[in-house]
Amino acid sequence: MNNGIFLLLGSNLGDRAQNLETSRNLIQQTAGRIVKASSIYQTAAWGKSDQPDFYNQVIEIETLLDPDTLLQTTLQIEEHMGRTRTEVWGSRIIDIDILLYGDVIVEHERLKIPHPQMTNRRFTLVPLSEIASEVIHPITRKEIRELLLICEDQLAVVKV
Ligand SMILES: Nc1ncnc2c1ncn2[C@@H]1O[C@H](COP(=O)(O)OP(=O)(O)OP(=O)(O)O)[C@@H](O)[C@H]1O
Ligand SMILES: Nc1nc2c(c(=O)[nH]1)N=C(CO)CN2
């Protein structure tokens, strides 16, 4: 069983809380058990600001799937839930990002772990810090709580 795997869930269309719940259920059915879940946060849209606020949540899972298969599985869940890819950083029913996979570093075109943007995003670091503050980011070698302290993003992140 592989441990220390953290996923970011995000939704800013439709019933956002319900969308997160549906994705958690599908993840448990297809990828593995959820061992920890952060609170849900309402977060201002990052990157492309003229869109509704997101709900974001970080979960920790244990899984037998390797990183590539985990990505295929999360992409299938997004498709199953009706997500269409229209624009980069645009609105979406559900987005599932693989943030960390233990200490594993992956550098492919289709898959990069740790997620390259995670250190720049309070909407990721705040919920991740809630459940994994002392986990070490395998590239920067810093704890998540320290990455949050030095993160320059100022966008609002509020517990729902
Ligand atoms: N760690 C990762 N987790 C999820 N997808 C990844 C990861 N690394 C690379 N990808 C690739 O990114 C694609 C998803 O792009 P998507 O449209 O969701 O980007 P985005 O969510 O708009 O932007 P961002 O990746 O900055 O959050 C996937 O098809 C996948 O191949
Ligand atoms: N607050 C917030 N902003 C975003 C999010 C997200 O999940 N939350 N996802 C994005 C896609 O990359 C772009 N912008």
TrEMBL record:
- Note one Pfam family from the annotation: HPPK
Classification via InterPro entries: Hppk, Hppk_sf
Q: Which Gene3D superfamilies match?
A: 7,8-Dihydro-6-hydroxymethylpterin-pyrophosphokinase HPPK
Q: Name one GO molecular function term.
A: kinase activity
Keyword line: ATP-binding, Folate biosynthesis, Kinase, Nucleotide-binding, Transferase
For this protein, the Enzyme Commission number is: 2.7.6.3
In which pathway is this protein known to take part? Cofactor biosynthesis; tetrahydrofolate biosynthesis; 2-amino-4-hydroxy-6-hydroxymethyl-7,8-dihydropteridine diphosphate from 7,8-dihydroneopterin triphosphate: step 4/4
Gene Ontology biological process terms in this record: folic acid biosynthetic process; tetrahydrofolate biosynthetic process
| Function of the molecule | Catalyzes the transfer of pyrophosphate from adenosine triphosphate (ATP) to 6-hydroxymethyl-7,8-dihydropterin, an enzymatic step in folate biosynthesis pathway.
The UniProt family comment states: Belongs to the HPPK family.
The name this protein goes by in its record: 2-amino-4-hydroxy-6-hydroxymethyldihydropteridine pyrophosphokinase
